[in-house]
Amino acid sequence: MKIVIVGHVDHGKSTLVGRLFYETDSLPEGKFDQIKATCERRGVPFEWAFLMDALQAERDQNITIDTAQIWFKTEKRPYVIIDAPGHREFIKNMVTGAANADAALLLIAANEGVQEQSRRHGYLLSLLGVQKVAVVVNKMDMVDYSQDVFDKIEAEYREFLGQLGVEPTTFIPISAREGDNIATRSDETGWYDGPTIIQALDGFEEPRHSNAQALRFPIQDIYRFDHRRVLAGRVETGTIKVGDELLFTPGQRKARVKSIERWSSPPSDEAHAGESIGITLDEQIFAERGHIAALADAAPLQTNRLKANLFWLGDNPIEEGKTYKLKLASQETQCRIEKIERVIDASTLDTHTDGAASKKVDKNNAAELIIRTLQPLALDVYGEFVSTARFVLVDEWDVRGGGIVTEGLAASEDAYELGGAAWAAPNPVERFKRNRHRGCIVALHGAPEIERKLLPRLERALFNRGMQTFTLEPRHIDLKQAEYDPQTQALVARNLAAAGVVCLLDTPIAEGSSLRTFRMIADDARTAFIVAHLSASDRILERTGKRARQEDEEMFGDADLQVDLSGSRSEEEQVAAIVEQLIPLLQRF
Amino acid sequence: MASTEVTDAPNPNLYTAIREDEHGPLTPVNRYSPRDSMPDYSHLDALEAQSIYIMREAFNKFKNMAMLWSIGKDSSVLLWLARKAFLGHVPFPCVHVDTSYKMPEMIDFRDRIAELWDLDLRVGQNKEALAAGKTFPNGDLGRVECCSLLKKDGLQQVMERYNFEAVVLGIRRDEEGTRAKERVFSPRNKNFEWDYRDQPPELWDQFKTDFEPGTHLRIHPLLHWTEANIWEYIDREQIPVVPIYFANEDNKRYRSLGCAPCTLPITSEASSVPKIITELATTRVAERSTRAQDQEAEDAFERLRASGYM
Lengths: 589, 310
Fold this sequence. Notes:
The complex is a heterodimer of chains A (589) and B (310). With 589 residues, chain A is α/β, with parallel strands linked by helices. In chain A, helix 12 (486-498) crosses helix 13. Chain A starts with a strand and ends with a helix. Residues 537-556 of chain A have low confidence and may be disordered. In chain B, the strands form 3 sheets. In chain B, strands 5-4-3-6-8-7 form a 6-stranded mixed beta sheet. A two-stranded antiparallel ribbon of chain B has the order 1-2. In chain B, strands 9-10 form a two-stranded antiparallel sheet. In chain B, helix 3 (104-116) links the parallel strand 4 and strand 5 (121-124). In chain B, helix 1 packs across helix 2 and helix 6 runs antiparallel to helix 7 (273-282). The longest helix of chain B is centred in the middle third of the chain and has 20 residues, at 143-162. The relative contact order of chain B is 0.17. Classes of the chains: A alpha/beta (589), B alpha/beta (310). The interface between A and B is large, with 68 and 65 residues.
């Protein structure tokens, strides 16, 4: 059973874990002495937290930065203890730890009482679906084991959890430092007749597998390692049997299960919740990753609009109209925040439905909102279902929020009709992820003779590295050199860059001023414009017989390169020198 | 444990695990619990299913991935789970970073399994460091620096040579403190470094699958297993392991395998998998206590891992 320990910073979570291990005789040999030595070296009193705080930075600051897991056993059963950080800055790590847990111990220090993260963590536990919570009032030694203090905290926090619909299993007064009520009942709290920590842990009900529920089998992948076409996935709920007629959502296609595929396992014609298996079908219907297989009479909803409760971990706030990648079971789609209905301050449960505070969701807060997806989704409403009723939002590179579906709304009209290209079109981040580089304009700036020779070689070199690239010459915009207008070429270059291409410029005039035009037009559209200033030794210049283009100091931008070609003899070497400096700039978003 | 019968199988090796070659069984059957009195290992089902799920996610998301095969018990289990996930196949290369100081039994085992199971084995080695004599056994370097050059840089070279975007590793949270803080999909930056102070959130089996060019992902399908789980699973599935895990006639066995100069055997009478499981249930000694490089300084291993070590 997996138990997460949460609570406000410095309320004693890591200390409780250390003490729990000591009291139950679960420490590895030498660990106690090792912690003692570490503390002595630092000149600090003995600190149980050092058992879990494995990182040097954690020990130095005496604060847990990231969540950790450790194993121990009671007479009843084994446990995985997940220690979560309590500092506001590390909420994302707390969420990571808590999202994995079957039950939670929520710590509140008796001397400080209910604090900001005590409430935020309580709220997050309920949103993450951790319903089994025991509240631990720690540091009772610092309030002389006062029943009055304990009762007040219990009353206050019970009311808070009540607003979330969470009924804590128990409140336990302890001192992690002194070992009161951890494994054995303490004489100091004669007024308390509830369970110790160990008894509370053993009292948590086992998580149940959901075989009795309706079948949900999200397709993870399609394998064709041999003549068979195997749909791989994990049975999230219910049971799947050979002969069952499956309905695949979205798409609503049907086929029967022909076989259940496993390797080196006892053969069986059925698979239950939690099993990772493969299936083959009697008919070759269109099915792909993301589709959820179910029985026809109890299928998930298919819609592109949903109402959700969501918590946000991103530095950039959520606002209406913003787009994100949404991941639900094995489905992925672009989505757009249609409406923020209520913003919830997760530490007070204060809600905002109008005014500035209701327009955006800041980091570590929560909201009720309506989301519209580009592709139709198969989903369930949270409650009866869990894993097919919750989702995450990805902003740029990382998961930045998580939500539960509270309502599937009527499917709206075609997403492409609605917002049009504005959000349905692939955005620059998506293009970047696909191409593994950004679209931009690149110009060489050196002796024209050298530029002319290097440009085609540079294009080939970038292309061979898998990049989308194109050399834009004056002839492509159908202009004779006499009528050449850098503005027109710049506008075409800008569009190529917007399409994700690395556009190399071949400009006909040996004047820095045309590059300035490009810089202006590119900046206008926030297109990256990179000038590679080529400096060559006098010897190369003599050989080419040309003077380098006049360097214009104003021309230098942040992203510009200064490439020294003096050491490179052949054109290939010179191109390699440019590529080496250019690639990191192209791979930065 | 019976194997799935598939009558129209083109290659029987894909459907049942072959555990012996012309030299005999890789691990004799009497090293495991007898099939008719196998203990109740049903708690392993959930661990197995989760590992398969993780590997399948990785395989779907990364075009160019590999598995790091250190030849120890954990990567033997990892290899087995890959075959479970991909129905008998291992559809990506297995990378072994050979420091040249590995025990000969490990290399022998590696070559037999690779041949028997038709693996795409890629051996990497930091030849420059070895040629320059920059190693601990050579006397020129400390143990940690040696690990960094031969193993971490060795891996980095293989990853660069084949342009791998993701590598599957058999590390576990219960091995040591910094691994306890790992993510299942764990990013490494362009310099191979682990930014353990700022790891991405990971929840509800939605892993980090978007990553910047030049960076790579470490995939950890065994993170949630314990040392005991590994041996229980080896017992249940009769997975072949390197013979030096079993106590010899001098009552010595290895609990954790590494390079010969930095890995010590323990005194033990555990000559079979069930005996190892019994021994683990009573021992209070940490698994990696026999790995000398971990013991050099309070944060030796942390620094090594932050710089990109497994």
